[in-house]
Write a structure and sequence with these properties.
By secondary structure, the chain is mainly α. The protein contains 11 helices and no strands. Helix 1 packs across helix 11.
């Protein structure tokens, strides 16, 4: 082996390894800082994701001579109207058919009672009453624990409301002043960072935009196929359930589970046990195809990350940070890939002119 080429290869490997350690240490420091300031970081993350979704509209308005503040305010207000409209789309049909659902629930409970009184349990009314009394006594004995859960739930709701308000406010300012940030960074950062940091931020923002758009596409496909299945089976509230499935696609694991559970419950109380099993099978098949094929392929193509990396990131993120970790795993993996590709490009050495020390 040529000693010159060997030394060049070793030098390049050592240089890349050293920079990889620097990137890893910086990533750990950033993640630690985000964890320490999570209450402030979470609204910023949500606002950034919403900005990538709504910025094309704001850019269109600004391109037609709208003032920045007016465009940002219009888009923010339009987004809020869309959110409340979707909520009404779910609530109005549910309210209109609440009587039917309640009747179905009562009928389901009566069916359950009849089943308990028949074989193989053969429970009579006194035995059923004793079971109910035992459950009531257990609930009463756990009143303090339940109160604690309720108080914690109220705190979670309050925290969620505060986070939502801050996210909307930040969304307005990001839409209004976002284009000024990169020029400001170029003019105020020292040395070479004035070039590299804005470029990395720009590429990272593009990746976040692709993530939100790909997730919206996946949610739409899920809602369309599951909604079609619900329509064929004859389940009521198809439209609000489809909207719920679309929204749930943005919250991995828990979102799909909750939306699917609601659809199965509605099918159970309205259409019976057999149709509920059919709906459950439809949801499981669609979500398995989405989780194991559609999501990795669509997100991997949009984020320029291999599907296996997306799957691994979701698993690791879920283990490290639960639902939030699973939600942010894909964009974080894509951002790490952006940083790595940028460093690789900056550190690449032309083969015909290797850099050798000594």
């Amino acid at each position: 082996m040529d000693p010159v080429r060997a030394r060049a290869a070793l030098y390049g490997a050592a240089k890349i390894s050293a920079w990889s350690l620097v990137v890893a240490a910086a990533a750990v420091a950033v993640l630690w800082l985000i964890g320490a300031l999570w209450m402030a970081a979470w609204p910023i993350i949500i606002a950034l994701l919403l900005t990538t979704l709504t910025w094309p509209v704001a850019r269109f308005l600004r391109g037609h001579r709208w003032p920045a503040a007016a465009a940002a305010l219009t888009v923010t207000a339009g987004f809020l109207l869309l959110v409340f409209g979707v909520a009404a789309l779910i609530a109005i049909p549910v309210g209109a058919q609440a009587g039917l659902v309640a009747e179905g629930v009562a009928r389901g409970l009566q069916t359950l009672q009849d089943w308990a009184q028949g074989p193989p349990l053969n429970l009579d009314n006194d035995q059923l009453d004793s079971v109910v009394d035992a459950v009531v006594n257990q609930v009463q004995s756990s009143a303090s624990d339940i109160a604690g859960v309720v108080v914690g739930g109220v705190g979670t709701v309050v925290s969620g409301v505060v986070t939502a308000v801050l996210s909307v406010v930040l969304l307005f300012f990001f839409l209004k002043d976002g284009p000024r940030f990169l020029p400001w960074a170029r003019n105020n950062l020292p040395g070479a960072s004035a070039v590299h940091v804005p470029e990395l931020l720009s590429r990272g923002y593009d990746v976040l935009g692709r993530f939100v758009r790909s997730q919206a596409l996946i949610g739409f496909i899920d809602a369309a196929f599951i909604g079609l299945g619900l329509l064929i089976v004859g389940v009521p509230l198809v439209l609000p359930l489809s909207v719920l499935i679309f929204v749930g696609a943005f919250v991995p694991i828990v979102g799909a589970f909750v939306a699917g559970a609601v659809a199965v419950l509605i099918a159970l109380v309205s259409n019976g046990f057999v149709n509920a099993l059919i709906v459950l099978a439809i949801i499981v098949v669609v979500q398995q195809l989405e989780g194991n094929l559609l999501q990795p392929v669509v997100q991997g193509k949009g984020l320029h990350v291999h599907p296996a990396v997306i799957l691994l990131g979701v698993v690791v993120g879920g283990q490290l940070a639960g639902v939030v970790g699973a939600l942010l795993a894909s964009p974080v993996a894509a951002l790490i890939a952006v940083v790595w590709r940028y460093l690789r490009d900056q550190l690449s050495v032309p083969p015909e002119d290797p850099v050798i020390d000594g």
